[in-house]
Amino acid sequence: MLGFTRGELRRKIVPEVVxxxxxxxxxxxxxxxxxxxxxxxxxTVRRRDGMVIPVEVTAYYLMFKGTELAIGFFSDISERKxxxxxREDVERMVRHDLRSPTIAxxxxxxxxxxxxxxxxxxxxxxxxxxxxxxxxxxxIDMSRALFKMEAGTYKMRPETLDLLSIMDSVIKxxxxxxxxxxxxxxxxxxxxxxxxxxxx
Length: 200
Known about the structure:
By secondary structure, this protein is α+β, with helices and mostly antiparallel strands. It folds into two domains: 6-76, no CATH class; 80-154. The protein is 53% helix and 16% strand. It has six helices and three strands; from the N terminus they run H-H-H-E-E-E-H-H-H. A three-stranded antiparallel β-sheet has the order 1-2-3. A hairpin with a 5-residue loop joins strand 1 and strand 2. The longest helix is centred in the middle third of the chain and has 36 residues, at 78-113.
């Protein structure tokens, strides 16, 4: 992976291969390794040709015949970093290239909705487009939320919601598929009233 021969690698010190662990940082890293016995972290390493690549390092502290040793295993994570970068690009595209035009469409049709000269068919078409744009915006927001969850940056903000309205929207969405597939469905729910607890 690094391109060095065994002899070349044995003559090198860690900072020459791992630029992120300098001579100044090595003592602190060594103490951490001795304390934890094992460390897993991401770093960059310099290949023989000078190219720097990202790696995941698994380092172990060992005592062998009275000599302290640090043994490290490197895994090339260039592809993983490339995919992460691609996902970030997609997230930016979703946020800017899709979400902004969708909001603009909603704003435009809200203006049309205030017109008093629309026919019934035009009004129905307008409402259908507005619902579709709201659905599209919800999908975009959910994809952004999932991306943040996977990245560990999502912050949950609990809020109240109209469950019946959501269920009604889901029913309307799946109804055409049920009709075309000759499927029937039933929705039942049970609501229990909470009794206030009285403490003495």
